[in-house]
Amino acid sequence: MVRAKNAPVPRTLGRIMGAARVGKVVRCRPASFLGATKTTVQWLRNGRLIRRATHLRYRVARPDLGRVLSCRSTAVGAGGRTSVVSFGVLVRG
Known about the structure:
By secondary structure, this protein is mainly β. The chain has strands spanning 2-3, 9-10, 15-17, 25-29, 33-34, 38-45, 48-49, 57-59, 68-77, 80-85, 89-90. The protein has no helices and eleven strands. The strands form three sheets. Strands 1, 6, 7, 9, 10 and 11 form a six-stranded antiparallel beta sheet that branches. Strand 3 and strand 4 (25-29) form a beta hairpin.
């Protein structure tokens, strides 16, 4: 977790919903924050950013097979920004 002084405070972690299988769509339920004015998400594969994967829904692709998907929620507020990462899910064939 990254948090600046007076930045939004996380209340819950994000969560991945759905079957993490190639070709299926999974959904990120973003973390909730106190003091946030805006929240964004970014999908991660084995902890690294997936380019252009910034929507709540993500179609699991072949490069994800055998890797761990997670979603990072970032909240912005008057005091700065805070990011938290969901628990990961292993992608199966």
